[in-house]
Amino acid sequence: MSDIWEEVKKEIQGALPEKSFSLWISPISLLEKKEDILVLGCPNKFSLNWITENYLGMFQEKLRCVCNGSYRFALKVHTPAKPTTPPGIFTPVRQLSLPNVPTNGRTLNHDFTFDRFVVGRCNEFAYSASKALALETRISYRSLFILSNTGLGKSHLSQAVAHTIMKSSPKLRVIYITAEDFVNEMIFALKNNRIEEFKNKFRRGCDVLLLEEVHFLGGKEKTQLELGYTLDALTNDHKRIIFTSSLLPKDIPNFTKELSSRLTSGIVTTIEKPDYDTRIKILERKSFEQGIKLSGDILNLLAKGLTGDIRQIESALRYLKAKSELLKAEINTDLAREVLLSHCSEQSCATAEDIRNLVCQYFKVEPHMLDSKSRKKIHSYPRNVYVYLCRQHTGMTVEDIGKTLNRNHSTVLYASEMIEHKMKVDKRVRNQVEFLTRKLKDLMK
Questions:
Q1: Are 372 and 433 within one domain?
Q2: How far is CA 349 from CA 304, 336, 341, 440, in A?
Q3: Could you tell me which of 392, 373, 369, 239 has the C-alpha nearest to residue 311?
Q4: Which end of the chain is more exposed for a tag (fewer CB within 10 A), N or C?
Q5: pTM (global) more than 0.90
Q6: What CA–CA distance (Å, rounded) separates 19 from 204?
Q7: Are residue 205 and residue 264 in the same domain, yes or no?
Q8: With contact defined as beta carbons under 8 Å apart, do 441 and 342 qualify?
């Protein structure tokens, strides 16, 4: 029977981030078999409740795949002799070649430096404010909040600050961490009576804190409270802090006013989608880095068509290079147009109405319930999927999508971010969205 659980764990490991798997799944053991029930032991009641609420459905799904539905799981508390610390939590781990950084399972990207950041009108102030904070030149602020959608460079700037500080002041203790990892570390500390160690790490063992994706903290009251105390301690000691988010604190659902005030007490700056001139610069830089020679006509064609984020531009260039090399084809305007057909949402003729009908049919909900005030999961989840699909497969702006649901800009962004996050950690959600995407493409043929 232990072989069955080990097979299920392997399946789960492939669907979860490494830290989440180490924190929640690794400590679970198979205790016994009772007829068609496999009893799993959780290290404590907190773990049992968390697994039941967040992962038990995934457990059952993986078990059906392994055993063809002949068994089911039951959970009980079974305290191990000694708790196992997930890798990277409270124990320093060497991060690339940067030994002074407690990595918490996250690594800095070598390419995310200031000299590799393409500056334009869309991001000039964010770049200048970040660099000034890193170098402490002519500034009157100690914290910076960078706001932007995904793929526009906020993580690049945040990590560029870390690289610069460690190069100029190698003795400073820099912590780079996502809000999700901050939550996981705090939960682990609470479960294992190590909360003082957790507090010391972030309040007294940190000179520079870089906290990514703070919108993830929405609704997590205890974590918000602890972070507030941590920020007070760092601020009182004149430490430097950088936050990144897809939403302003005031627009994050279930976010306290006290923490919102702390996060925006310094400079708040935004990064917008790159304008045409900036897209030209990005294309020139990225094509040079990939060893691609592009004519002025091709640069102009791609800059006009690739109006999304930087990831879209990078993906298009990789596609262009691969197709040229594999097919021995010349990089010309015809090949560039083929790239645009594959990468531009404008080429899709999907409409919000198409997506609404498809989502409502799949989830068996009435169309008018999507724009209702209902917060029930049977209505809110399809609504969030609708938002995500609209952002991925139509040329609509966030404001346009919001108007179809009677929702504001921030709510639409949050809904899209939630689905994007769930697709990374929940295979069921990922399969549903991929299925709907295929159906939508079939509909458009």
A1: yes
A2: 18, 20, 12, 10
A3: 392
A4: C
A5: no
A6: 24
A7: yes
A8: no
Q: What is the pLDDT of residues 211-252, one digit of tens each?
A: 999 988 888 888 899 899 999 999 999 999 999 998 888 888
**Do 57 and 123 lie in a common domain?**
no
Q: Per residue in 94-143, pLDDT tens?
A: 333 333 334 444 678 888 999 999 998 888 999 999 999 998 877 778 89
CB neighbours of 124 closer than 8 A, spacing ≥ 6? none
Give the end of a domain, one of 51, 77, 103: 77
**3-class DSSP state for residue 385?**
helix
Same domain, 127 and 253: yes
Buried b (16+ CB within 10 A) or exposed e, 128-137: ebbbebbeee
Query: Distance (Å, rounded) from C-alpha 12 to C-alpha 32?
Result: 20
Helix ranges (DSSP H) in 244-309: 257-263, 276-289, 296-305
Of the three residues 347, 373, 408, the one that is the final residue of a domain is 347
How many folded domains does the chain comprise? 4
**Each residue's pLDDT tens digit, 334-351:** 888 888 877 765 444 568
The verdict on residue 143 lying in a domain is yes
